[in-house]
Sequence to fold (579 residues):
Amino acid sequence: MDAKAQENISRQLLDQTQMLAYAQGDAAAFDQLYARHKTAVYRFFIRQNLTTAVAEELCHDTWLKLINNRASYQANALFTTYLFTIARRIAIDHAQKKSVLFEKQQIEDDLDSLDNQESSKTQQITENNHDPQLDAAVNQTLADALKQQIAALPYEQREVFLLKQEAGFSIDDIARITFQNKEKVKSSWRYALQKMRKGLSFYGN
Amino acid sequence: MATNKQDDKALAEDQAFIQSLYDDLSEHNGDYTAEQPSEQLDQSILAAAHKAVKARPTLHIEKTSSRQTSDKKQELNRPADKRKKIAWYYPAATAASFLLVGLIVNHQLSVPINPEYRAPLVSMDHITKAEQSESLAAPAAEMELDTFSDQEVLPAAAEQAFKEEMLIGESDDAFAESEQQLTASVEVPVSAYKKSMKSSPAQLQSKAEVAGEISAGAVLQSTEAEFAVAAAKPQPSIAAEKEAKADMLASNDLTTEMHKQMLAEQAQQQRRQAAKAKLAPAAKDRMLSKQTFKPPLFPAVLAYEEYKSLQEQSKQKTLYWQLQQETDSSYVIKLFKTEQTSVFYRLNKNSFQLDISSEDKKRPFAEITYTAEK
Fold:
């Protein structure tokens, strides 16, 4: 077992202990938990093609739900699995409330226009090699393209991609969080990667 | 297998490609990796977490029954002005409700059940209908007769005979009423069962006769004769009720033994037939005597032509008359045409002259003189 895996296990144990401590009334334990996982939860929402305000609102709901259900938390489940199960449920509820199809279509349209802009920018970048100002611009462009590609993924693939790539869950954990078959999660992961590489292939070159 | 290896290889390559992009972004510390929730969100979440922990006792402990009882006690121990005031109109409304219900019930009890009901008036139609039903009753009773062997009916017949004997013994003293009450009976709304039971006096009479025969038939012949005479006196209203009670008693007692009841009825019919055959002449005599005793309701005015014809008849066979009534303008006489038949006549005082010195005696019709002839 490598050091990274040991570190993961020790972190999970620490999460469980602090969550149990918070359930017993230790407010400081929650502060540490929140500091470690707030970014992952926030990114999970902000990558769902949501505005910052909506992402923060959903993030707030997720943590509040965790606070209110602290007594029902059991140590046999990973804390992160428990946390992202709540986050996923809230994201699904939000997606059911509003029509996502319209946004999806709009994103595809935006992607087309963005590809045209990016191709022109990268042409300029390649022409003017190793300009420090342009490196920042390239990174910004790459970040935007990455966000748009993630947002353009189908919901299941996007969910798996975010949990795997951004939150760092394994396929098994994602299967537990999403209550899906492991093979189906793996398949979603594979298709998500293919689409992402296809959309971002220019940056690889 | 080869395709799986190729898929895994492609997956690894894709994963490495995406990871390299993420690494590039993190190295340059761009906006992508710098995305964080706002401090305002952090503060609100942490405040909610701390508040939840501090407010824990009140959040998770529900009120128990002992706490509720203590709350009630505290409520009672408070000063009167601080207690929850009960509105004054609650008891007033309750009392008014009870009063209203009482008034409605009292009003409904005082109102007659059927205000539109009017008691039927006695008229001549009712009297004639009663007479007709009386005259038609005997043949109807005859039509019901049927024949059965004695072996079939003996056990049930003994029980039925005992009941009828007891019933008729009770009603003997009530049979002394006059026969005129029977003819003046009025149609009153009654149930179908009672109507059928009191429809015909002659039928009742025959039942009484049958009952008399049953009571005495097995023991003494002399008792049978006495009972038949006593039963011959018609008392329809009481007898009908008694008969109905007897039948209902019998039916109640024998409901579980339907066959036994049928046999008893058939035996009764058989006995009724035999008794009727014995007492048919006496019934005929009674019918005749009824006709003779009918009072004249409207005496006919004696005309001159009829007077002449009666005088002629009186010459051949003496006719007698008797004064019944005298008014200012006329006499009412009873003319005996035969020993059994008599006719009432009204004679005008201006036209006829009578010797009314001895009212009780019968006088010959020839003594009546027609004064208008003079």
Remarks:
- The interface with chain B takes residues 22, 25-27, 30-31, 34, 38-39, 42-43, 46, 56, 59-60, 63-64, 67-68, 70-71, 135-136, 139-140, 142-143, 146-147, 165, 189-190, 193-194, 196-197, 200, 203-204 of chain A (CB under 8 Å).
- DSSP finds ten helices and no strands in chain A.
- The CA atoms of residues 150 and 158 of chain A lie 6 Å apart.
- Chain A has a mean pLDDT of 80.
